């Protein structure tokens, strides 16, 4: 079994539908390139004579564009960088912090990861886009949905400060859930 003998890079990427693991094998003698997403083989190339280049693929339910860049650093050393939606992983994650909110909670012994995409107001729970109902309330908006028979609500309220913008709060069974930073 020669699986993963040429593993050169592993990344964890937090998307709305979950945290995905990307693994990359690069055989510098055989020229082999293999990309795994969440343990499933996405790309396999044997006998690549050009050892540098780029492999493109998609990740997750949203089919997010991803690319691994292979660059020669010196001699037979290589550098591997992951891009998500055309941005370096670091830039992508920094941007994601501004465009999404993420909460992790446990209901009845099960962990749930809830993500709000602020630009579309889409709500994701454990990889599934949720059916939501939005309503305007006195101090902002409320987005209602249900997780495992628990009523959930994301309240959006103005912070009153231009720099901070809108504050989103998740309330489950009348209890505020703290946001997590991934």
UniProtKB/TrEMBL annotation:
Pfam families per the UniProt record, alphabetical: FAIM1
Residues annotated as signal peptide: none
UniProt superkingdom: Eukaryota
Main location: cytoplasm
InterPro entries: FAIM1, FAIM1_dom_sf
An individual GO BP term: apoptotic process
Subcellular location, record wording: Cytoplasm
Keyword annotations: Apoptosis, Cytoplasm
One Gene Ontology cellular component annotation held by this UniProt entry: cytoplasm
Protein family membership: Belongs to the FAIM1 family.
Summary of the function given for this chain in its UniProt record: Plays a role as an inducible effector molecule that mediates Fas resistance produced by surface Ig engagement in B cells.
Protein's name in the database: Fas apoptotic inhibitory molecule 1
Gene: Faim
């Amino acid at each position: 079994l020669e699986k993963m003998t040429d593993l050169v890079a592993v990344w964890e990427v937090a998307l709305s539908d979950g945290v995905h693991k990307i693994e990359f094998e690069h055989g510098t003698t055989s020229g082999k390139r293999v990309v795994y997403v969440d343990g499933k083989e996405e790309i396999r190339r044997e006998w690549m004579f050009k050892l540098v280049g780029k492999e493109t693929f998609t990740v997750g339910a949203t089919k997010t564009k991803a690319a691994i860049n292979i660059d020669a650093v010196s001699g037979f050393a290589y550098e591997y960088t992951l891009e998500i939606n055309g941005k370096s992983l670091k830039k992508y994650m920094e941007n994601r912090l501004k465009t999404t909110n993420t909460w992790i909670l446990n209901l009845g012994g099960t962990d749930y990861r809830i993500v709000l995409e602020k630009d579309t107001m889409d709500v994701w729970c454990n990889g599934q886009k949720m059916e939501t109902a939005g309503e305007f309330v006195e101090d902002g908006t409320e987005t209602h949905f249900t997780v495992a028979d628990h009523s959930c609500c994301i309240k959006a309220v103005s912070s009153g400060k231009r720099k901070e913008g809108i504050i989103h709060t998740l309330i489950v069974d009348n209890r505020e859930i703290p946001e997590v930073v991934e």
